[in-house]
Design brief:
single chain; 2 domains
């Protein structure tokens, strides 16, 4: 059965406010980087991280909506985010120049690891 999801006005306002906030943050970072003369390589390196992280975690969190009420889900998600961020910081400190394609490959590997963690902690039931 195909049902359309109707969003309330409040949900639309919340969503568009979030989009606006993200846009303002991106512009603010761009202005800050321009004023500080941040190296182009640094922008590409951390930009790839900033682009991949919300996509990776956004899909992970959105896909497992049924687990949102479980505290362990959020603890695991936070731990994965911390490991993800620390791992990238360590790699960026040791690998130069960084290529955006490497971020794509690492993100795919991380997505697989995240799914394995999720399947190990919360196996799918036959109804799912």
């Amino acid at each position: 059965m195909n049902r359309k999801k109707h969003r309330t006005r409040r949900q639309l306002i919340r969503d568009y406010s979030l989009y606006l906030l993200i846009s303002v943050a991106i512009v603010a970072v761009a202005i800050w980087a321009a004023k500080r003369s941040v190296a182009e390589e640094t922008i590409h390196t951390w930009g790839s991280f900033a682009f991949a992280t919300p996509i990776l975690f956004g899909f992970f969190v959105a896909e497992y909506r049924r687990l949102w009420r479980k505290r362990l889900f959020w603890l695991v998600t936070f731990a994965l985010l911390a490991l993800h961020s620390l791992g990238y910081a360590v790699v960026f400190a040791r690998v130069s120049p960084w290529r955006g394609s490497w971020t794509f490959i690492l993100t795919l590997i991380e997505a697989f690891i995240f799914l394995q963690c999720r399947n190990w902690l919360w196996p799918l039931t036959p109804e799912e």
